[in-house]
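As described in the Methods, two query proteins were run sequentially through the folding procedure within a single session, without resetting any intermediate state between them. The first query and its resulting structure tokens are shown here.
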Amino acid sequence: MTAKNLTGESPFLLLGLSDDPQLQPLLFGLFLSMYLITVLGNLLIILAVTSDPHLHTPMYFFLSILSFVDICFTSTTIPKMLVNIQTQRKDISYPECLTQMYFFMMFGGMDNFLLTVMAYDRFVAICHPLNYPVIMNPHLCGLLVLASWLVMFCVAMLHILLLVRLTFPVGTEIPHFFCELVQLLEVASSDALVNTICLYVVTALVCAFSASGILFSYRQILSSLMKLSNTASKHKAFSTCGSHLCVVALFYGTGFGVYLSSAVSLSPRYRAVASVMYSVITPMLNPFIYSLRNQDVMGALGRLLRRAVPCPKWIPDPKLSGHYKP
């Protein structure tokens, strides 16, 4: 096959998670269910936060943004996979592959930065409670979200601009269910050393910045909590951080697990299966973690559902009320 860098043809074939035809209906139903649960769960979080005045605080503002990003994150990969399974096709065009990769990197990176911003929010709320409304004002909250988007916009665009320099044989097979940068660098027919170096350096910088921000925030939080003598105040502070810590552990734990599986296993298909954890499972579980561990969110969801499905108002029977006159 000749190596080309075409934009109008379909040089890529997504092999998916399995070639077994008997497993395709099962995979379609499983991923469709997970996608619908992810969209519905995160959409309920967004509606609960926006509709309840009690949740109009920086912490829940960032939570609603995180839910929106999770919806976008899964929407970049799962719908294309479902269409390929349903139509029994594996091809993806060059522009479509680059677009999918760009948004996957951008929304995945925004998840990473938003978790850091949420850790900083908890640090200010617990360590500087009197100045919390002044520090975490709406202007700063919007600026933090915008900065997260701008950084990942530049990072994702950098990788895309470096990638268009490479050539790929027409009909290149990608052993994955979406266009992942690492997989594309492995199947490129031209030298991808610069891309690989840039990938590892940028990823290390982004992860180091986020991890250090989260560790610093919780170190300060733990130090402040150790000085508190009131057990009830400690419990309340820990409860507000518990959901965030669970999501952080899930996000970084699954990402680290995929990295280890890539280092240990030589099978690209196994790495594709492992990547389902951080690309599908984590966004699906986030709404459950934040709602089940947070009474404010549970209460807001209950009020939202009661407004959406109002209870019928029963009209009393005058014969039973004692005021009926024949």
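Immediately afterward, the second query was submitted; its sequence and tokens are:
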Amino acid sequence: TTGEASLYWIDYLSAMSKIPYAAHGYCSYFLYAVMDREYSPDITQEQGLEIVKKCFAALKMRFLVDFPEYTIKIVDPNGVREIPMSEL
């Protein structure tokens, strides 16, 4: 193993692919545009949270349903922790 985290996508036909980021459901049509534009392999956690804020802004503008709250979790070598929306 490389000692690095990995993210994989498995579709409905069980095809698996390693990917750098993911979004699911109808929202993914809007979010992939933001992530494709903003993501780079060497981003910091702060830059990642900025991308999350841009994703929320895209959803607020383009998605039909307005969700008031989201759950944001960070997974790193220290474990899993939740970030409140107010800290973005």
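The chain has a mean pLDDT of 89. We note this only descriptively and draw no conclusion about the first query from it.
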